[in-house]
Amino acid sequence: MNNIIRTTIEAMAAVLGGTQSLHTNSYDEAVGLPTEQTARVARNTQLILQEETGICDVADPWGGSYMMESLTDELADKALAIIQEVEEMGGMTEYINSGTAKLRIEESATKKQGRIDSKQEVVVGVNKYRLSEEDERKDAVDVLEIDNSKVRLQQIERIEETKRDRDEAAVQAALLKLEESAGLDRSTSKGDDPHNLMKLCVDAAKCRCTLGEISMALEKVWGRHIPRTSIVQGAYSAAFSTNRNDDMGSEDEFQRILDRVKKFEETEGRRPRILVAKMGQDGHDRGAKVIASGFSDLGFDVDIGPLFQTPEEVALQAIDSDVHVIGISSQAAGHKTLLPKLKSELASKGAGNVIVVAGGVIPPQDYDYLMKETESCSAVFGPGTRVTSCAEQVLDLIDAKRK
Ligand code: B12
């Protein structure tokens, strides 16, 4: 519920800054798709600002405020520094291809997680003023339940129906034009160019080509983008070593885990090893990267799987790398299908002893299904998880297995 207040402040900031287009997220954003009620609250946040406060009647309500003007200046300077870095690398395409854009985002996310976990940055209800577990349960919001197997079947049926009713010759012609245009070695970006890719995509969609077919036509020529997977080193731990005034023992906690990992290495001859993996059609990799970078700073040996793996591929990679733990990051609601599948893949390959933990956007009402009913993972770490405390729990799980 605190998110309603956060969204109001963010929306106000946008309006006061002169935004012309505004989207407000629902307060259950981090636990699932919005329900009708939460979507209405998000929409009404805008309406209240627009129709009850009068802040839209003034062009620049903060104009002349020293604080706002200097913050705006600071923001512009920092943005210009990034733009300059991009230019120096030869433009945005190069910046992306070199992996720098992704790295900068991941660095920033890891630093932010470090600041929150070390309590340098307060998030009310998350790292300060937390409710007891019992009160938290009472305060839980109703999360929209999605039956993903049903949705999958419905989507397959819709695609089959679309394919049945369309003009197949027109479809193939439209896809061929796309492929040809993708193969040209000149720019087609001018709107009146008959080979303009955007225009050809719109034409293809009008013939009812599916998104998969459209992207496959381009993939035939361009191949598939494979993002670099790297760990951001030192960004997470930095927040703990700079927060020396902390009275909550975060630095001690960090050191305690490092010592525990060191001890593990002394007795086992190797460090605890985790494979952080993503399964299914889920492209959200931020949580996985933050966890991988945080665990690495805490002394773990960390492997990262590529995006879009199948449960079988994850099981094989885990066996190949001889990991103690597989950490699955799930944000796109595939957890109830993919985690049980991973468990059976591991069992069928004789690797049922590998510990599986999961994290991400997993509604609390699914925890029992995953941990008890299907026993497909030993722990679930949802949004707001402190990397330090989940690393400790993972070490507990490994220790329990060793005994
Ligand atoms: C950023 C974001 C995106 C970015 C992703 C960029 C990227 N490279 O990751 C973009 C804009 C591309 C995107 C796209 C989409 N998104 Co999105 N996205 C988000 C958002 C706002 C934040 C996720 C995030 O990065 N959080 C920051 C990280 C650090 O937090 P975290 O992942 O929760 O991880 C923490 C814990 O969960 C835990 N954890 C996570 N993983 C693991 C793993 C282990 C092993 C452990 C121990 C712990 C752990 O520890 C972390 C630290 O505390 C969420 C909503 C939200 N507020 O969470 C929606 C959300 C995940 N997206 C959603 C949707 C629907 C989509 C789209 C389908 C939208 C669309 N129609 O196109 C697409 C799908 C893209 C795809 N192919 O998968 C939904 C998913 C709904 C659901 N699960 O039912 C969400 C929940 C928003 C919503 N409420 O509607 N998205």
Task: Looking at this protein, list some descriptive labels.
403 residues; mainly alpha; Rossmann fold; 3 domains; five-stranded parallel beta sheet; 17 helices; 6% strand; globular; binds cobalamin
Spell out the blueprint of helices and strands.
Layout (H helix, E strand, L loop, with lengths): L1 H15 L19 H17 L13 H23 L3 H6 L2 H18 L15 H6 L9 H18 L2 H16 L13 H10 L4 H12 L12 H8 L7 H19 L4 E5 L8 H12 L3 E4 L6 H11 L3 E6 L4 H14 L6 E6 L6 H7 L5 E3 L5 H16 L1
Parallel strand pairs: 1-2, 1-3, 3-4, 4-5
Helix pairs in contact: 1-2, 5-11, 5-13, 8-9, 8-10, 12-17, 14-15
The chain binds cobalamin.
The site of cobalamin has 31 residues, from helix 5, helix 13, strand 3 and strand 4.
Description:
This protein is mainly alpha-helical. The protein has three domains: 2-124, no CATH class; 148-222, no CATH class; 235-402, Cobalamin-binding domain (Rossmann fold). 57% of the residues lie in helices and 6% in strands. The protein contains 17 helices and five strands. Strands 2-1-3-4-5 form a five-stranded parallel beta sheet, with helices on both faces. It starts with a helix and ends with a helix. The mean pLDDT is 93. Cobalamin (B12) is lined by residues 29-30, 32-33, 109, 113, 146, 276, 282-288, 290-291, 327, 329, 331-333, 357, 359-361, 381-383, 385, 390.
Brief summary of the model shown:
With about 400 residues, the chain is mostly helical. It contains 17 helices and 5 strands.
Average residue-wise pLDDT: 93
Shape: globular
End-to-end gap: 42 Å
Strand content: 5-15%
